[in-house]
Structure formats: C-alpha cells, structure tokens
UniProtKB/TrEMBL annotation, chains A, E:
<keyword id="KW-0029">Amino-acid transport</keyword>
<dbReference type="InterPro" id="IPR003439">
    <property type="entry name" value="ABC_transporter-like_ATP-bd"/>
</dbReference>
<dbReference type="InterPro" id="IPR017871">
    <property type="entry name" value="ABC_transporter-like_CS"/>
</dbReference>
<keyword id="KW-0813">Transport</keyword>
<dbReference type="InterPro" id="IPR003593">
    <property type="entry name" value="AAA+_ATPase"/>
</dbReference>
<dbReference type="InterPro" id="IPR014343">
    <property type="entry name" value="Ectoine_EhuA"/>
</dbReference>
<keyword id="KW-0472">Membrane</keyword>
Automatic annotation (TrEMBL), chain B:
<dbReference type="InterPro" id="IPR000515">
    <property type="entry name" value="MetI-like"/>
</dbReference>
<dbReference type="InterPro" id="IPR010065">
    <property type="entry name" value="AA_ABC_transptr_permease_3TM"/>
</dbReference>
<protein>
    <submittedName>
        <fullName>Polar amino acid transport system permease protein</fullName>
    </submittedName>
</protein>
<keyword id="KW-0813">Transport</keyword>
<feature type="transmembrane region" description="Helical">
    <location>
        <begin position="151"/>
        <end position="172"/>
    </location>
</feature>
<feature type="transmembrane region" description="Helical">
    <location>
        <begin position="49"/>
        <end position="70"/>
    </location>
</feature>
<keyword id="KW-0472">Membrane</keyword>
UniProtKB/TrEMBL annotation, chain D:
<dbReference type="Pfam" id="PF00528">
    <property type="entry name" value="BPD_transp_1"/>
</dbReference>
<feature type="transmembrane region" description="Helical">
    <location>
        <begin position="20"/>
        <end position="43"/>
    </location>
</feature>
<feature type="transmembrane region" description="Helical">
    <location>
        <begin position="55"/>
        <end position="78"/>
    </location>
</feature>
<keyword id="KW-1003">Cell membrane</keyword>
<keyword id="KW-0813">Transport</keyword>
<feature type="transmembrane region" description="Helical">
    <location>
        <begin position="189"/>
        <end position="210"/>
    </location>
</feature>
<feature type="domain" description="ABC transmembrane type-1">
    <location>
        <begin position="15"/>
        <end position="207"/>
    </location>
</feature>
C-alpha cells in the first residue's frame, strides 16, 4: 500500500481535484469565550473532492466539520453548500438568518460520522440504519431495510442486523455508524477522527471500509484524521491547520514528502514519530 | 394584622429557623455517622448503618414526631423538650437521607484516586482523610442543599404537635382574622423566600468548594428557572 | 432537656412549684370564646380569663400560653408540656380517667353551624342519621365525634377537622354540611368573621341512649395534682357566689343561663354513653 | 412503663382502613406526578422563555414550600374559588403536584444524562425534533430515570401522614382518633408507625426489583 | 533520535541487563470470572533493569503492573520484591498471607504512574508532590518541598507550584504525576501507558522527561507502552505478551528488527502501520 496518492486518487474522481466551489467557507470566524478558534477563514472544496484536515490538537479542525453539520454556529461569515447558504437564506436579494426549515433542507445533503460512533443504544443495528431514511427521507420500511442490509453487508456486518450496539466491538460499531451515514445518500460525508477511539487492529478494519467507499463513489468527503497513511491513500488534497488558519494546502504527495512550511514539517515529524 | 399577631408569626419564624438550623447540624452528624458506618469493613457497624437508614427513610418524620411526643412520655416516662423532640425527629429523618448522600459521594470518588493513594503508600485512614473525603464533601454539597430545603419544608410538620412554628403562627392568624386564603398565601411566599435564602447560601458554599477542585457549578434556583440546555435544540 | 414526670407527694405540689417559678403554662386549643388569641395577639377568652383570675388569687401572676390541637391537650398535659388545660374542656367520664377536672364553670347547649339559608334543612344530629347525603363536621378530639357516632351517624359521613377555624372553612368549602359545636363557640367565632355566609341552627341538648350530654366545661390538671384542684374549686366557688365569675365571662357572650352548680364528681360518674 | 396490648391489637383493623386510603392517595398521586412531571420537564426545556421561565418559577416554588401548607391551601382555599374536589382527590392532587416537581427533575437528569452525541447524531441524520424525542432521547432517558422514580413512590407514601391536616382519615388521623376515644395514644401510633414502615419496606423491595428489570441502560 | 537502542541503554545501567531476580513473578495465575487473564506466569526483572511490556489489548499487561502495585490480587502464585514476598510473609519458615503492615512495607519501595494521571484535584501541584513524602515517609515539610521543587523543575513545571491540577494541560498533569511518583524515592517505578491519554505533541514532552530520568538514574522500571520508539530508546528488554503469556522476550533491537514469533511480527506491523 505504498502507491503514491496521485495515482490512488485517480480512479473515479479525476475531475474532483478541480475545485468548483461546491462547499465554500467565506470569512468564517468563531470564538469560544476569549478563545479565538477560527479567524476570518476562507476555503472551498470541490464537488466529489476528498479533503483531509490535519493539524495539531485545538487548531479548529473539528470545529470546521461541526459548523458544516450545523452543530456549532459561526460567529460571522457565510458557508455555502451548492447553491444554498447554510445559515442564511436569500430573501429579496438580501442574506438573512435562515429559518429552521431552510437549515434542515441544506443539512439534508450532509451527514457526519463521529469519533464516538454515537449509535442509538436503544435500537438494534438494522433500525439504527433505517430510522432516518424512513422518517427523514420518507422511504418505505421495506425499501429502507433492503438498502440497509446492502450497506451493512458492504461493511461486513450482514450478520449483525439484530444485535444491539452494546453487543458490538468498537470497530463494528464504527462500521455501523458509517453504514448509517451512507444510508442517507448524502452528497457530503464528514468524518471526525473516526478511528482514534479504536485500537490499531480495529482501526485498520474501519479505514479499509472507508477506502473502499472513497474509491467506489464520488461522494464529497471531509475527514479529520491522524492516520496519515489513510490521508495519503484516499485524499485529493490535504489542508494543514494551525491556530485556526490553513497554513498549507496541497495534494498529499506534496505535503507529506515536501512540506513548504516549517510548522507542517515539525507537526508531521511528531506524528510520524509517535509509534 | 395587629402587632401582636405579627409577633406570633415572627416567633414562629424563629422556631422554624431554629428547627432548620439545629436539625441540619444534628442531621449532618447522623448522616456522616451512618454513611461512613455503611462503608465500614465492620459487619456490625454496616448493619447498624443500614438499619438506621432503612428505618428512618421508611418513616415519615411526622410519625417519628408523634412517637417522641406521645409515646416516649407515656411509655418510658421521659419527656423531651418539644423543640428538642422536633429537632431530633427531623434530624433523624434527614440524617437517613444524608447518609445515602455521604455514602454515594464517597463511593463516587474515582477509583483512580484511591489507587493513586495506594501507589503512594498512604494508610487507609490517610486515604479517607486526605484524598477521599475532601473530594467527596464537594460532591455532597448539592445534595445537602436539597436536603436542607427538605428539612425546611418538614419543619411545618411540627405544627401538628404543639410547636409554634411559622405554620402554627399562621394558623393563629387565620383563626383570629378568618382570612384563610390570605394567610396561607403569605405563608407560601414566606417559605419560598426562606428557601431562596438557604439555596443562595448553599450555592455560595458549593461554588467555593467546587472551585477548589476546578469544577463548574450548576445554576442556582433563580438561574434554574431560566435554565434551558443547549441540547434541546 | 428532659422534664421529670414522676413528680409526687400525695396530692401533688404543683401550686408550690408554680409559685416559685412565678408562671403557669396554660394549654388551650385556640377556640372562641373559651381560649383564643385575639386580633391583638393576646391570649383571652372565657376560660383563659377565669383561669388567670383564679391563678392570680392563688399567687401566680404570669401566664404562658401553650397552643395545641384540641385532641393533643390531654396527652400534652400528661406529657408535662403544660400545667393546666384552660380551654373550656367538657367534663366526660372518659376524660376523667385521664385527667383531674375542677368543677365546671359553665354549661352550654349545642348548635349546628350551617351554610346560609340551611339548604339541606338540617336541625339536629338525628337529621344526619336520616339523610345519607349529609356530612357532619366535628373537631378532632372533641366529644362531638363520639356524640355523632353514638347517635348513629356513620363514620363515612363524619369529617374530623383539626381545629375550629378549619371547621368554619370546611363548611364554607362544602367539606361538611354542618359543623357541630356549642352555640357559645360558634356564635363567638362567627362574630370574628363578619359577613361570612354561615348561620347557626337552633340550640339543642344531645341525648344519647336517654342520657343528656351536657356541655359543662372546666379546667384540667394531671391526675396526681389533687391539691391544686381543691384550691381551684375553692376560689371558683367563691367567685360564683360573689357574681364575679359572671362579670368576667359576660364579655365573651356568656349569660346567667350558662352558669351551673354541677360538680366534677357528678359529671364524671354519669353513665357512660 | 404502661402498655395496653389489647388496644394495640384492636387498633390494627381500623388502621388498615387508613392504610388503604393512604395507598389510594399514593397511587393516584403518583400517576399524576409521573405525567405532570414529564410535562414540567419538557416545558422547562422549551426554547420560548415565556414558557420555560414561568413554568420554572412555579416548579421551583412548589418544590421549596411545604406540602403541608399546600394541602391546607388546596383543601380550604380552592373551594372558595368554586373548585370542588373530593377530599381524597385533594390529597392525591396535592401529593401529585408536589411530587411532579421532584419527578420533573428526575426526568431532566435522565434527559441530560443522554449523551450530547446522541443529539448530534440525530441532527447529523436530520431527524425532526419530534422523532428525535420519541425514538432517541426519551427511550434512553426514561430507563435512566427509573431507579429514582421508584424512590419517589416511597417518598410520596411516606408523606401521606400529612394528609391528617385535610381530614383524610389515613392512618395517623385514625390513630389520633382512637387516641381521643380511648385516651391511649402510644399503642395506635406505634401500630401506625409499624404499618407505615412495613409498607415502605415492601415498596422499596418492589422498587429494587423494578430497578433491576427496567433500570439498566444499554451502554452505547 | 534514531540512534540504536543498544547504545541508548548503555549509559548507566550496563549491569542491569543481567537479571538478578530483583522482582520475581512465580507461577502467577489470575482470572476475572470465567476470563483467565494470566495463567501460571513466571518471569523476573533485574535490579535497575528497564523492561517494556508490549502486546495486544487485553493480553494482561496492565494486570501485571497492578499486581505489583497491590491493586489487583493474584489468585495463586507468589511475587517477590528483593528479599520480601509481596502478598505473603514468612512465619516460622512458612509462607502465610501477609498482614496490612507487611504489604505496606514492601509496597513502600514501589510506585506507579497511571494513564489517567490521578492527581489529587483538591491539592495544588506542590502539595500533590509533598503530601506522601511528609505523611508516609515522615519527611519534614521543608525538606519535602525542596525536593518537590527540584523534581518539578526537572519536569519543566517549576512555575506551576501553586496551580490546581484542573488548571494544567494533560501533558503537564502527567508530568506532575511523574514528579509525584519520583518524590517517593521508589526503587521500582511502574508506568502504564502514561502517554496514551495525550495528543502526540504532549506525549512527546512526557516521553522526553521519562527518557531523561531513565538515563540519569538506576531505578528499576516496568513500562506498558504503545510508543515503540520509546520502548526501543530506553528499555533493556521488551516482553511481548499475548493472551496472558510472555511469547517473546528480548532486547529491543532484536524484537523490533528481527522478531522470532509470527504473532509478534503481525502485532508490530499493525502498530507501526497505524500512523
Ligand atoms: N464547546 C466549546 N466550548 C469552548 N471551547 C471549545 C468548544 N469546542 C471547541 N473549543 C475550543 O476550540 C478550539 C478548537 O477545537 P477543535 O475541537 O476544533 O480542535 P481540533 O483541531 O479538532 O483538535 P483535536 O485534534 O484535539 O480534536 C480548542 O481550543 C477547543 O478548546
Ligand atoms: N477488574 C476487572 N474485572 C474483570 N475483568 C478485568 C478486570 N481488569 C481486567 N480485566 C480483564 O482482564 C484482561 C486483561 O486486562 P489488562 O487490563 O491487563 O489488559 P492490557 O494488556 O493492559 O490491555 P490494554 O492494552 O487494552 O490496556 C482483559 O480481558 C480485561 O477485560
Ligand atoms: Mg477534533
Ligand atoms: Mg492496559
């Protein structure tokens, strides 16, 4: 698995590397109390592009994903997804605060997989995956179950439909969470350190599943990860964050093998050094 | 209302406060004694702690009070001063609840703390005194604060047996003026205000204690009225 | 903080104790017109004022009011929480077994307290036996509960109020259709609440198994305190004959008609109903 | 020491009637508290301050004032405003409303005990608010609350002696009644105490069984 | 930092690599319920030796350390530390269950640093470090404070004496915990994944401190760690655990570069693969 990333990224998403401004962060700022986390940040991601966010702890990576998922509101700036703004709507040519209705519509295109899985413990695996398609997308129960079984098969859990999350290992839970997210047919998939709660062997399982998905679909992906090998393998572009700014953005081959910034270099050293 | 009637209310208020404060102090003693007894390695002590908490959590303070006032003198020939009987009945009751708080808080001290204390070779008693209790006490204060309000409310029971507390004072006023709605309305407000004062004081204590562990403090009564958690979005 | 109950020379030495202590603790149930806290907050009433006068004559000048539920008066006295019951308590044989009464200082008939207009047309306790939609209110620990029962009112239609004001509020609130008490009490309490939509029925003497139920009230002491009871009776007799008693109780609505020569012994030995 | 066993044994049958009434008041009161408590808890979480604040005020007020006084109020004052409830209903409502304020806190703790991640996952799946409550949050929150809910039945039962002030002939009132007829207080009061304690112990035993059956939350 | 471990281990503890049986586990078994964690395990560690325990999750590494710290009792077998048994005393030539007194004496030579730091939150940093020396070793307050300041300086926290643990970062807390353990002048220091609760950069800080201590003292160390670089750097010997058994024991150079067992090889691959 040491093929250079450029080749890996090649297969379905050749066009993806051209940034057509599918997701656009424009002058986003966010502070928690006195702690300025993001300061006037702008960047964009193309449709079908797979972007990995790396950077030291506290640099604001999770905050970016949470904003897209509407779990954390920006203090100022706008976020656009496709034609629509996320926190704003256009009314009479002016941008105004978006109503719940509008936010739900835009949010419908996005979904997120969490570090802590966050499966619903009161539902069996199958229902975890069908609940939202049935009650949000309005799919029929049968249709939803069929698709859910397909997805669970794909992540290697076809035999766990009737299990409760508490009866699964961490890696299995994380794979259910991925199936659950994919069942929503999202345009955009957000992944926040989806393997760091797992031990190395379980993490490898989950990364394999994600690698397959990445290569066989043209979903737009934003991942935060410390698994540099994975970043190298699947992403078209890596964004290096430090103190709420993007200090370097480049294809993985470039950023890992020849970082331009001193900070990137030291960061990568400490991470690669670790084991 | 005349000055004389106000005076009854005022004296009732003093009795209510005395019952609450002395009841709280004595209750605290019972709570620690029984709570720690239940955690003891000694079977007998554990049994006694268990019997006490089960019995007095199971009995209404009113029943205990009736017993102290009516049964103790006739059967055993011992009459406690009414205020003392009131304090005793209330504190036995609240102490049983407090014992559970003490026990729970001690057990909630993370196992890691105890293990760290063992790793530093502290004696069992040093572990309790230097590591466990200082942390457990902080965790007890919010529950004790609730218990204090329970106690305040329970003091109204004593009016059924001779003690001229705030409720009793109000009963006098009601009898004398015939204004039932007004008197009880006033009474409810009075208890509400006393409770507010107590919770505010406890909150200050809690804040100070929690600050020493670097924890955040839950909101007080007024803040709780306006409370709404982020999650409910 | 204990009080020794095993006090005792023959006949008791309560009076000496009271004299040396300088005060007497008077138990009462806040019931007009016998003993109650007036709108100024002072202890007053027929029994209170008579009691105060007699104690003053006996050399005790200070009075400590001790308020209690009516039903708690006897156990409270016996538990040593106060020295005398000064609440106009009726003498009944059962009570005589518990405490020692002085001779009565009044004798009064019963009335019913009714809602204005007496919608159910109630007049005597017997009416409650007949009408199964009528609920009678009594005071907890009072003799009225026993009377109502013995006349044949079922328990399910007897409501026991904790005190006299509750009885009034209870009739107002429709918790009972009438409240049974002596006319004296009811009249006096009604005066304190001008304008309430309540009225009194006609007075009657309750008869249980052919025995008239007197409402003759007196002071009560602990059983072992015979001496002070004798002293008390002596002063009371003196005041009766001098007319001073009537003078004291007139302001509380008592008249010549309520004065009595019955003795505690007679009332205590009346056949048990 | 004087003690009359005759009266002691004779007291049981009449006091048992009182026990039945106390249990009736507890059961009805508890049902009220369970439902009203959930209503309080949900209203207090409302995003509309003019809903959450007044409800909060009422709940905190009821919670911090004595049940005894509230019972007086309900029993003697409400009818003056033409609200007529039977004595037993007044008792049950008094207990129910009072305990609803506690129970709302239990539900609140249960709801807040549902990890934040569950809300976020529901949002990431775009589940609507109603569905989030009914299929994700409450099914986790209520089992979490179960042990504490059990404790409040017992607490409520223990408070029934206070119904003495509203003439409800539960055990303590009956004991006092027997006392003023026979002038023997120790025996009936002791019997009442024994019956209260025994019932409470049985209840807490049952509560423990329920807790074991239903109180376990599946860890995520 | 890529010098071969053999050289690194050289400096103070040359003699240490010879195992003189300072700590001896003899036929130790332990089960939790039906789960047999350690089965008849025997091994020994020399005085001044630094040993790293590696192996997959659940293989019993932590259990070993906890037994030495008397936090978990073995079901059968003996543990000897120097001349004394840990859970037994010799009375009239026979081994009997040790009394509290005896256990405390032997335990006095050992201390442990935990993954979760376990600082006392109710004491400031300085008091965290002085409390046990004063009350267990009977040092004077002044003496204990002087030594504590020295140690805190050494771990780079000379300016945090008056802080509460909650006011420190994870890496700082872990360093206080190390100072606290060292203040007891232990003969034996146990470290259980002391960096795995930390992010990569904080972990590096802590490992540096430990490396310094290892090299400048002849304390006997048993570490459980996933930081293979650290294991390579400081330890004289690495024990590979699997399913409660030691399946391979060798100097780090040997075990990392030329493992004898297939299981060791796959384990090391998955771990080194991770980043
Ligand atoms: N809800 C919050 N309240 C206060 N501060 C917050 C909150 N969420 C995040 N922060 C702060 O914002 C900063 C950025 O956090 P964020 O979680 O985005 O970092 P990150 O890059 O994801 O780090 P990590 O790699 O540790 O996950 C941090 O300093 C964090 O403490
Ligand atoms: N207190 C306990 N009760 C029950 N089982 C336990 C307990 N402590 C440990 N175990 C079990 O013992 C086994 C070994 O645990 P141990 O913590 O020693 O493993 P480890 O090698 O340290 O693993 P890790 O790398 O995950 O920390 C595991 O299967 C664990 O579940
Ligand atoms: Mg993050
Ligand atoms: Mg471990």
């Amino acid at each position: 698995m040491t093929e250079p990333s450029a080749a890996a990224a090649g297969s379905p998403g050749e066009k993806a590397t051209t940034d057509d401004g599918f997701i656009v962060f424009d002058q986003i700022s966010k502070r928690f109390g006195k702690n300025v986390v993001l300061d006037d940040l702008s960047f964009s991601v193309g449709s079908g592009e797979r972007v990995t966010l790396i950077g030291p702890s506290g640099s604001g990576k999770t905050t970016i994903l949470r904003m897209l998922m509407t779990l954390t509101k920006p203090d100022s700036g706008t976020i656009r997804v496709g034609e629509d703004y996320l926190y704003h709507e256009e009314r009479n040519g002016e941008l105004v605060k978006a109503g719940e209705q509008h936010v739900r519509k835009v949010r419908g295109r996005i979904t997120m997989v969490f570090q802590q899985y966050n499966l619903f413990p009161n539902m069996r695996v199958l229902r975890n995956v069908t609940e939202a398609p049935v009650h949000v997308l309005g799919r029929s129960q049968d249709e939803a179950e069929e698709r859910a079984k397909e997805l669970l098969d794909m992540v290697g859990l076809g035999d766990k439909l009737r299990a409760y999350p508490s009866q699964l290992s961490g890696g299995q839970q994380q794979r259910v969470a991925i199936a659950r997210a994919l069942a929503m047919d999202p345009d955009i998939l957000l992944l926040d350190e989806v393997t760091s709660a797992l031990d190395p062997e379980l993490a490898a399982e989950v990364l394999d599943v994600l690698r397959d998905i990445a290569k066989s679909s043209d979903i737009t992906m934003l991942c935060v990860t410390h698994a540099m090998k994975f970043a190298r393998d699947v992403s078209h572009r890596v964004l290096m964050f430090d103190q709420g700014k993007i200090i370097e953005a480049a294809p993985p081959a470039e950023i890992f093998d020849d970082p331009k910034q001193e900070r990137t270099r030291t960061f990568l050293e400490s991470v690669l050094d670790e084991t | 209302m005349s000055a004389g009637l106000w005076n009854y209310m005022f004296e009732g208020l003093l009795v209510t406060l005395q019952l609450t404060i002395f009841g709280a102090i004595l209750g605290l003693v019972f709570a620690f004694a029984a709570g720690l007894a239940r955690l003891s390695g000694n079977k007998l002590l554990r049994g006694m702690g268990f019997a006490y908490t089960e019995a007095f959590r199971g009995l209404s303070a009113l029943v205990v009070l009736f017993w102290l006032i009516f049964v103790l003198p006739t059967v055993f020939g011992v009459q406690l001063a009414p205020l003392f009987a009131g304090v005793l009945a209330l504190s036995l009751n609240i102490g049983a609840y407090g014992a559970e708080v003490v026990r729970g808080a001690v057990r909630a001290v993370p196992q890691g703390q105890i293990e760290a204390a063992i790793a530093l070779n502290f004696t069992p008693w040093q572990r309790m005194r230097k590591v466990i209790l200082p942390q457990a006490v902080v965790a007890m204060i919010p529950s004790f604060s609730n218990n204090l309000i329970e106690l305040l409310k329970a003091t109204a029971l004593v009016s059924v047996v001779f003690l001229s507390d705030l409720t009793f004072g109000a009963q006098l006023v009601r009898a004398s003026t015939g204004n039932t709605a007004g008197t009880f309305g006033l009474l409810l407000v009075a208890y509400g205000l006393i409770a507010l004062v107590f919770t505010t004081l406890m909150r200050l204590l809690e804040r100070r204690a929690a600050a020493s562990l670097g924890r955040t403090v839950p909101p007080g009564m007024i803040a709780r009225i306006f409370r709404r958690t982020e999650a409910s979005a | 903080s204990r009080v020794d109950l095993e006090a005792t020379t023959e006949g008791g030495s309560l009076l000496d104790e009271l004299r040396s202590r300088g005060n007497v603790r008077m138990g009462f149930a806040n019931e007009r017109p016998f003993a109650y806290i007036d709108s100024e907050g002072n202890l007053t009433g027929q029994a209170s004022e008579v009691g105060k006068t007699i104690f003053r004559r006996l050399g005790v000048e200070e009075f400590v009011p001790k308020l209690a539920d009516f039903s708690s008066l006897i156990p409270g006295l016996n538990a040593g929480l106060f020295d005398v019951i000064a609440a106009g308590m009726y003498i009944t044989p059962a009570r005589c077994e518990q405490i020692r009464f002085t001779n009565p200082d009044y004798n009064a008939p019963y009335n019913l307290l009714l809602p204005e207009g007496n919608p159910k047309g109630l007049g005597t306790v017997e009416d409650f036996v007949r009408r199964d939609d009528a609920v009678i209110g009594v005071i907890v620990g009072g003799v009225e509960q026993g009377i109502a029962r013995d006349i044949g009112v079922p328990d399910s239609r007897i409501v026991v109020f904790p005190d006299q004001p509750s009885g009034f509020d209870g009739v107002l609130a429709g918790r009972a259709d009438a409240f049974l008490l002596t006319g004296l009490s009811l009249r006096s309490a009604l005066e304190a609440r001008p304008g309430t939509p309540l009225e009194l029925g006609p007075p009657f003497v309750a008869v249980v198994d052919g025995v008239e139920q007197h409402g003759a009230g007196a002071f009560g002491f602990r059983q072992d305190q015979g001496n002070i009871v004798n002293d008390f009776n002596r002063e009371l007799a003196d005041m009766k004959s001098s007319g001073e008693l009537l003078e004291i109780v007139e302001p509380f609505g008592f008249t010549e008609a309520e004065m009595t020569d019955l003795t505690a012994d007679e009332l205590c030995s009346a056949p048990v109903s | 020491m004087n003690w009359d066993w005759q009266i002691f044994w004779d007291s049981f049958p009449r006091l048992l009637d009182g026990l039945v009434i106390a249990l009736q008041a507890t059961v009805v009161g508890y049902l009220i508290a369970l439902v009203l408590g959930l209503v309080f808890a949900l209203l207090r979480r409302s995003r509309l301050v003019w809903v959450s604040a007044p409800v909060g005020l009422v709940v905190e007020f009821i919670r911090s004032t004595p049940l005894l006084v509230q019972l007086f109020f309900l029993f003697y004052v409400l009818p003056q405003f033409d609200v007529h409830l039977s004595t037993l209903m007044t008792g049950a409502i008094g207990l129910g409303v009072h305990y609803a304020t506690y129970i709302s806190e239990v539900y609140r703790a249960g709801i807040e005990g549902v990890p934040q991640g569950q809300w976020e996952a529901a949002k990431a799946l775009n589940l609507p608010a109603r569905r989030t409550w009914t299929s994700v949050i409450l099914p986790q929150a209520i089992p979490r609350s179960a042990p504490a809910l059990g404790n409040y039945v017992i607490a409520m039962f223990k408070d029934t002696p206070q119904l003495i002030v509203i003439t409800l002939p539960e055990m303590l009132t009956t004991a006092q009644g027997i006392g003023s007829e026979t002038f023997r207080y120790p025996e009936p009061i002791t019997v009442a105490g024994i019956l209260y304690l025994a019932t409470a112990l049985v209840m807490s035993w049952i509560a423990r069984i329920f807790e074991r059956r239903f109180g376990t939350v599946r860890a995520a």
